[in-house]
Amino acid sequence: AFDVTDLVQVQTELQRSNAELEQFAYIASHDLQAPLRAVTSFAGLLERRYSGQLDERARTYLEHIMASGQHMKRLVDELLSFSRVTTHRRPPKPVPLRQVVDDTLSRLTSDIAAVAGEVTYENLPTVMGDASQLGQLFQNLISNALKYHRAGVAPQVRLRAEQEGKLWHFTVTDNGIGIEKQYFERIFQVFQRLHPREQFEGTGIGLALCLKIVQHHGGRLWVESTPGEGSTFHFTLSASPEDAVLLKAR
Ligand code: ADP
User: Fold this and answer.
1) Which end of the chain has the least Cβ crowding within 10 Å, N or C?
2) H or E element that contains 233
3) What are phi and psi of 164, to 5 degrees?
């Protein structure tokens, strides 16, 4: 016969092993930082000071070391952010999203200029949450919207927020390559990418991190898209300050 206590026990065990896994991911990525820094900084030193003494083949090897080091740094940084969402909880504070997006856009200035992109926003409210996580959320969605642009089409990115009862409904819309419907769920999983790295550089952690951040804030994140025309990423955040208590307890 079906026993509810079994279900509760399974759930508790799952939560525990999930927490252990996240703690493991945190420690592993944290401890990888120092040796990785040593590899990239010594490789950089070789390149700056001794590249004149190296033959062409050795210089190519060095370039591979530097490029792989940079990619690994991105992986480690993003994994660290991913595990920090739940392992490093901070009490929720009012976060003025207009300010958050302005800061994000100034960090992305050179990326935006490089693709002759344009990012516009309207109506961004103040919500309760973690400012650094919400900054990461906007940064990932905006940089994806710029990165996955169609060849020869300057990326146009539009951010909007609309209040729907007790929720804010946000959209980040681009005019990029778009995503086929069959991948709408998969792209939010860790390490799931639809393109080879030679075509679009990336780690496959960005959207999984976004999903975790939105869920941690009690919201939902999903995508709508037409291949060849563009994509819209939607997410919700609470509009009522009393929900901040829920956030703290989560
Ligand atoms: P990545 O580091 O590869 O960008 P993400 O987790 O951010 O990883 O995204 C996962 C995949 O979803 C990407 O590899 C890309 O194929 C697809 N994707 C994400 N954002 C967009 C977008 N705005 N337009 C088209 N495809 C996108």
Assistant:
1) N
2) strand 230-238
3) -125, 95
User: Who contacts 90 (Cβ-Cβ below 8 Å, separation ≥6)?
Assistant: 130
DSSP label at residue 227: T
pTM given for the model:
0.87
Q: Which of 207, 211, 221, 224 to mutate to test the pocket of ligand 1 (most atoms within 8 A of CB)?
A: 207
Quick one: tokens of 10? 């399974």
Q: How far is CA 163 from the centre of its chain?
A: 24
- The H or E element containing residue 100 is helix 97-107
176 lines ligand 1 (CB under 6 A): yes
Q: Quick check: 232 and 176 in contact, CB under 8 A?
A: no
Q: How many CB atoms lie within 10 A of CB 38?
A: 10
pLDDT digits (tens, 9 = 90+) for 104-116: 999 999 999 999 9
Could you identify the residue written with the tokens 């026990």?
9
How does pLDDT run across 178-207, given as a tens digit for each residue? 999 999 999 999 888 898 888 888 889 999
Tell me the C-alpha distance between 238 and 216, whole Å: 11
The CA-to-CA distance between both ends of the chain, in Å, stands at 32
Residue 229 to residue 185: CA distance in whole angstroms: 19
* pLDDT single digits (tens) 22-71: 888 889 999 999 999 999 999 999 999 999 999 999 999 999 999 999 99
More confident residue, 67 or 250: 67
What is the rounded distance in angstroms from the CA atom of residue 230 to the CA atom of residue 172? 11
Residue 218: both structure tokens together: 């009690």
Whether 248 shows a pLDDT value over 80: the answer reads no
How far away, in angstroms, is 166 Cα from ligand 1 center? 29
CB of 230 shorter than 6 A to ligand 1? no
